[in-house]
Specification:
With 132 residues, this protein is of the alpha+beta class. Helices cover 19% and strands 10% of the residues.
Length: 132
């Protein structure tokens, strides 16, 4: 009898879109947008050699959707090279880098939102005016 290979799903598989790209999101307080991205993260520097400076989350994330009362924001787990430009698709290594850093800020993968989770949150009273 042949042994069947059992393939365990990757922890980021639940974030995979049909296009093969992982899309993960996180709801955070708006103040979190001011957190500085650590040195060494791709495209995280915005200064120069004489005046090194790191982007903050608000400058670095691919996308932001604010709650109606502007107390919370859903950020996209991914980085921009410049406003509106990311250079390449997000991959599992990128999500891992975010997970590692966000863990130091008290957020775990259990806090990450899938596309469906984000859609549900966006339809909630906090983000949607509903059927007015």
């Amino acid at each position: 009898m042949l042994d069947e290979e059992v393939v365990e799903p990757h922890k980021y598989d639940k974030f995979l879109h049909t296009n093969g790209v992982p899309y993960a999101f996180l709801e955070v307080p708006v103040a979190f947008l001011n957190e500085v991205i650590p040195e060494g993260a791709n495209w995280s520097d915005k200064g120069d050699e004489e005046n090194p400076e790191q982007k903050n989350v608000g400058e670095y994330t691919l996308g932001k959707i604010y709650s109606l009362d502007n107390t919370k924001v859903i950020i996209t787990i991914g980085a921009t090279r410049s406003v509106g430009f990311r250079g390449r698709s997000v991959n599992y290594d990128d999500v891992q880098d975010w997970e590692t850093w966000l863990d130091t800020k008290g957020y775990t993968i259990d806090n990450f939102l899938t596309i469906a989770d984000r859609a549900t949150l966006l339809a909630s009273e906090a983000y949607s005016l509903g059927d007015e």
